[in-house]
Amino acid sequence: MSQPPHSEASLTDLILERLAPFPRDHFLSASDLNAATAPALLDLADAFVDFNRGSTKALDLMRGRTVMNLFFENSTRTSSSFEIAAKRLGADVVNMSPRTSSVAKGETLIDTAVTLNAMKPDVLVVRHGASGAAALLSQKVECAVVNAGDGRHEHPTQALLDLLSLRRAFGDVGGLTVAICGDIAHSRVARSNVSMLSMMGARVRLIGPPTLVPGDADRWGCEVFHDMREGLRGCDVVMMLRLQLERMEGALVPSTREYFRFWGLDREKLAWANPGAKVMHPGPMNRGVEIDSEVADDLTVSLIQDQVEMGVAARMAVLAALSARLDGDAA
Amino acid sequence: MSAPVSNTLAVLNARLLDPASDYDGPGSVLVEDGRITEVIHGGGAVARAGVTVIDADGLCLSPGLIDIRVRTGEPGAEPKETLKSASLSAAAGGVTTIVIQPDTDPALDDPAMIEFIQRRGAALGLVNVRVAGAATKARDGVRMAEIGLMDEAGALYFTDVDRVIANTRTLQRVMTYAAAFNALISCRPADPWLSEGAVATSGELATRLGLASAPAIAERIQLERDLALVEQTGARYLVDQISTEDALETLARARARGLEVAASVSINHLCFNEIDIGDYRTFYRLDPPLRPESDRQALIEAVRDGLIDVITSAHAPAPAEDKRRPFAEAAPGAIGLETLLAAALSLHHEDGLDLLDVMRPLTSGPAGLLGLDAGVLKAGAPADLVLFDVGAPVVIDADTLKSKSKNSPFDGRRLQGKVVCTFVAGRRVFEA
Lengths: 331, 432
Hints:
The complex is a heterodimer of chains A (331) and B (432).
Chain A: H1 8-18, H2 37-53, E1 66-71, H3 76-88, E2 92-96, H4 109-118, E3 123-128, H5 133-140, E4 144-150, H6 156-170, E5 177-181, H7 188-199, E6 203-207, E7 223-225, H8 228-232, E8 237-240, H9 256-263, H10 267-270, E9 278-280, H11 293-296, H12 304-330
Parallel strand pairs in A: 1-2, 1-3, 3-4, 5-6, 5-8, 6-7, 8-9
Helix pairs in contact in A: 1-2, 2-12, 3-12, 4-5, 6-7, 6-12
Chain B: E1 9-18, E2 23-32, E3 35-41, E4 52-55, E5 60-63, E6 65-70, H1 83-92, E7 95-100, H2 111-124, E8 128-131, H3 147-153, E9 158-159, H4 168-178, E10 184-187, H5 192-195, E11 200-201, H6 204-209, E12 213-214, H7 217-233, E13 236-239, H8 245-256, E14 261-266, H9 267-271, H10 293-304, E15 310-312, H11 320-323, H12 340-349, H13 355-359, H14 364-370, E16 385-395, E17 414-424, E18 427-431
Parallel strand pairs in B: 1-4, 1-5, 6-7, 7-8, 9-10, 10-13, 11-12, 13-14, 14-15
Antiparallel strand pairs in B: 1-2, 2-3, 5-16, 16-17, 17-18
Helix pairs in contact in B: 2-3, 4-7, 7-8
């Protein structure tokens, strides 16, 4: 879904036209958006996609604002994505990772937050290994908090960029059947996506071995399949999740080769889905474990590279909207 | 009754025993191309011209026995038993399908091993050789084995054999995972801490003989734990060698609650009790250990009323040097493939069970549990058959048995029941 090339000035106008304050103080979970506010944010993100493809990738929307990346868990991919997003909006960015900070000296999460808060950042982007950490932080600081992934709980910006990728590939997400495959039980990406896709009218299926798909996942409103062939029948989108190799110590699945045989996506299995089905993956991929290189790299079916590009645009939209809300509060 | 080898034949004038259809009466069976084409009740059957005819003259004809728990030493301990010697023993005993246990060295814990055993067994051209895969890698009770791939390769069920998966979380995960393949998991019901080092059942006899023992309740405790997990995970489950009255009650209660759980019993626990240990006789050193007579009676009742689904020989070869030791140090186990039928028939001759009730857990019971199309006298089923003289007296002489190991607790015993002829896919694989 490509748009006619805009001039730099008209792109900026489009952005400003679509910019609206974020509906909540924080972006902690997919449910902070709804069927009305999500499309509006996506429209803004769309404009950022085109903007990012232009030559001048700099705006003033967040000039003078400070965005702090607080990453307790390793992630170059997500933290870089947020950093680039913030910088393109003109914000100052500070990156904090706990190994080099006082947390390594035993300072608690809250103490760290309160200390940083005293430095008066505008937005805190947090990734932490414990479910609920971002929410806890948001209660203790005065700035806006963006959840960049808390334990197994949520990763709302991932769901937003996935939604953006899908909308650009298919037009309307409502009515699509999306299969999320893999380690559902431990996946915050799965949870946020189930929430956001269902909100937008898509039908979501969960596919994986019983040890990786929670027994009561059907209470999320999804159909659960352990047989991938059954599960992929009628699907328009196949979203593969990364398998953490710790699961491979025979604990929850016996081996990578067994996992790949029954739940890994390759050309043969993709054929079980609808013709024209698209493949997604939040990255990083374990090639040969949950997905075959041949499929992952085939641009006619794979949206994986698009997802990365959409990631920056989606995060720009979130940051810009939060900033607009802060402007509104100040006024 | 010699005839050229063929897989097309007619067995006429037999006493048919087909537990699946509850038929015990005169009849004939026609076989073509390795499959049963017709089962005729009553007299008057006539074979097609040119077909090998066997006049059974009133001998019993039943589906070949299916023994679900057979240990060999292949690979790793071939001197005690090979697939070939086990297959020859089986054929001589009227056992037409054997399910090999994964406690070999290396363990049968990956699809390549499953395929290896199946191929080697098939190449022998004797009996059907099938395999049970290990539930955990190297049967270590920690890492789940490749249940899906082994299932695809043809493994019939999964078990760590004599090793108990003590870690509840591990067993729960194995059961949860196995459900994706509708795979059957079999566990030994023995609390590992109570059973540690035990070679006998706690009681007067063990005390008098000075043998380390475990209380019978060790079986019930573990079974209740396993059944709770079965209930939670929805797994398919087979109790491996139930041996106590207590555990039978637990099993009955679970069935009454609607839990689909199967149970096997070893022929040794049906035929012997702990008194047979006598003077520290190591052929009666078994695992699970022999129990008091009251347990044996309860097991027989359980076979009669169908609470127990499967009788197995629990064939466990042990070379002489492993048995010629003090009782506690002797290797546990007994061979049993060749004597299984005659021993089981003692339940009929001595304990008064109907023949069909005796044959059911040896044929249609295990076939149904494992999803095999054998074990029945029905058109379309494989022609795996055993022709036997139900009343013929035999004296078991362990030295003449075909197993490489001779640790038979039936050595010197008088039994009734003699295999005359065994057929696998219509081919004669044994003739007395």
